[in-house]
Amino acid sequence: MANESKREVKAAIERSAEEARAQARRVLAIRVGILVALLVAVVTVVNVFSSGAFLTPENLTNVLRQITYNAILAIGQTFVIITAGIDLSVGSLIELTGVVMAQFANAMPFDGFPLIVATLLVGLAVGCGAGLINALPVVRLNLPPFITTLAMMLMARGLAFKLSHGRPVGLNSSSFNNTGIGFLFEGPLRHVGLPGIPIAVLWMAVLVTVFAIVLVRTPFGRYVFAIGGNEEAARLAGINVRLVKTMVYVISGGCAAIASLLLMARFASGSPNTGIGTELQSIAAVVVGGTSLMGGRGSVLASFFGALLIGVLNNVMNLLSIESYTQDIVLGAVILIAVIFDQLRRRYLTS
Amino acid sequence: MSETAPLLRMEGIVKTFPGVRALDGVSFEVERGEVHALVGENGAGKSTLMKILAGAERADAGTIAVDGRPVTIDGPRAAESLGIGMIYQEFNLVPELGVVENILLGHEPTARRIFLDRTAAEKSVTAALTELGIALPFDRPSRRLSVAQQQMTEISKALVRKARLIVMDEPTAALTEREVEALFTLIGKLKAQGVAFVYISHRLEEVPRVSDRITVLRDGRAVATQPTAAMTPDEMIRLMVGRALDTHFPELPRVPPEAPVMLRVAGLSALTGPNGIDFAVRAGEIVGLAGLVGAGRTEIVRAIAGADIPSAGEIDVAAKRLVVRGPHSAIEAGVVLMTEDRKGQGLVLGMTVRENVTLAHLDAYTRGFLVDRRAETEVTAREIAELSIRTPSPEQIARNLSGGTQQKVVLAKWLIGKANVFLFDEPTRGIDIGAKAEIYGLMLELLKRGAAIVMVSSELPEVLGMSHRVLVVRDFRIAAEFSRGEATPDKIIAVATGVAA
Hints:
The structure holds 2 protein chains of 2 kinds. Chain A is 77% helix and 2% strand. Chain A has 14 helices and 4 strands. Chain A has helices spanning 2-49, 57-82, 90-107, 113-141, 145-164, 177-181, 186-190, 199-217, 219-229, 231-236, 241-267, 278-288, 300-319, 324-350; strands at residues 169-170, 183-184, 197-198, 269-270. A two-stranded antiparallel sheet of chain A has the order 1-4. In chain A, strands 2-3 form a two-stranded antiparallel sheet. The longest helix of chain A is centred in the first third of the chain and has 48 residues, at 2-49. By secondary structure, chain B is of the alpha/beta class. Chain B folds into 2 domains: 8-241, 3-Layer(aba) Sandwich (Rossmann fold), CATH 3.40.50.300; 261-496, P-loop containing nucleotide triphosphate hydrolases (Rossmann fold). Helices cover 33% and strands 26% of the residues of chain B. Chain B has a 6-stranded mixed β-sheet with strand order 6-9-10-3-11-12, with helices on both faces. In chain B, a hairpin with a 2-residue loop joins β19 (366-367) and β20. The A-B interface holds A 6, 9-11, 13-14, 16-17, 19-21, 24, 213, 217-219, 222-223, 225-226, 229-230, 232-240, 296-297 and B 305, 307, 326-328, 330-332, 337, 339, 344-351, 354-355, 359-360, 362-363, 366, 369-371, 377-378, 380-382, 384-386, 392-396, 413.
């Protein structure tokens, strides 16, 4: 009898959970819907002003290709920022890994696909290793990540310049061409007016999907949120806080290495000054996506949309031949407005 | 306006939160020089009512009048200028600033309008404290003051701002008996000067000692307001819970003599203070740790649970050696700690009930690489039903729950595992009577399953009523042990205060 009623209560509670999740999905759908509607409106207006230059398959593909690097950096940055940390080193890690990978690739006797894989592994080793060095003083000595990653930013950039003597390291092998500028399904998609799917964009899509799932659906992702929300409670729950925090910096360094490989492949060289300012761009994408710098909240998908929004703006302003100084002003204003808007929306939802 | 109007009159206050009607037309009055106790279970609406008075929340409907004049309290500044001072359970002091700076914060005297005038500041604070008869050290940051000293700082801060009505939320929760006496003396003195108090407390035995009138809130309604002399404690409890409640502790089952030792601690020491601690707890037994606040009880259970790493000593759990490398090794061995500070250490407030409940045992709810949300929801729903956790859904954010409900979520987090040694640190602190009884019932349930329990408690009746044995802790050592039959309040206090050994 008592068991009977308990089972009914339990079923009712489970139903309420279903409803709550359905409600959350609706809210998300509305949010995405608004974003898409806004985007469409802006694009239509811009398209008229740019006399149709924006809404061409080539240009849209271009936008996606341009945001690839920033979106990939933003993935790692999202993990770090949810733990209430920050990674300032990703920009110079692009440079360091780029130079190292280019020199490595040039020194290897073999070519083709094995070379790409080997180079990527070397780049990942350097990027993830740097992430590890970022994390150790943070988890062992409780130093602020702002400081350790700032130090890494300077060291990695200096090392990149020393290794390359300040000049881009040209790639001897042409195996990388496809990775950076190649397309998939060129033939079939030509018929519908598309240039094909850029391989770099495919990299981005795969990484965003995989890491979005890692963040939302795996225990590791749950721990990332728990640590950002209440590190002490997470520790007392038996979570290996040091390991999880170390992993987020390793992921961030790894993302820098992959972004660097794509950049290197695109320009056929590893350059010691391609990464300047990209760390801030990636933070901007995360913040525009609505992730709180206080930690405990955030989403890979939202950061991707943040990067997309910034990318579209850049592209549009280029098409409209707006000079670069004005572009910076507009971009800064958009970041501020996006964050204010997000804050207001949150306040409205909670009251 | 007129002399007969009360100092404060709140009428028909309504406040709704998503899914909850927190206040449903509450009226509440305070006269000059009166101590008005506000009692009720967790979630009855006490805090919300006081937050509205302090300007931290806005009422959806209702009026507030001060001295008979209608007022709008749209923020903390407005409350302050009306002479309303709030002293929350968690103090609002700037930890790095001293007593003088904290008391005068925002009202600093300046020399030539630019520079802080330290001499004038110290002089005015000294004058104010002398008048109150309080001595506070000026030479250290407030984070290094005792809880009682921080509280005195808060009271002085309110009085320097010319507060005529001071709201105190659970003021004695972390005070020793002597500090409580000092606080009541001060309240009496201020009362004589015409300062009024709203006194919120779960310690019902102290309410009659300090208050003139009592208002009981239940489910967002004021169910009674009566002079203290006219309300017996039993009646107060009946009004709070809406039914007569057995206030006695449940009958503790006897520990069978052949019951195995579940937890054995020998020579345990830690850098946080514990020094050569020895004791053992058998299956089906509750051992109470009594002692003064700061005696080291919390540090002892933290060291056992790996929250702090022990520096020496041995811990055996069910006759197996436990090497504590952190909370995870204790949890794996079946030892769990329910900390005193729920919000700071027990819960991730931004996460849902479901996510909090499974946090410490997520591996059990993972299939392949992915968390199995359906299994999570199932176990959470089970715990919500078992512990009658008052939440609209497993997806509710923990921040939106009341204190007692949050405590139950913390309990659920540890109950879903396979723990057999439970360390409770002040399990009923700041919790209403109904929830207390439920938690005692749960402890008995755990005993039946063969668990061993160590309970740290500052409430003597609780220690006496809910322990098979009582260990008295003083200066990070176990100073005495009493069996259930021997333990009396006098003996425990004598040992705890160092009067007897």
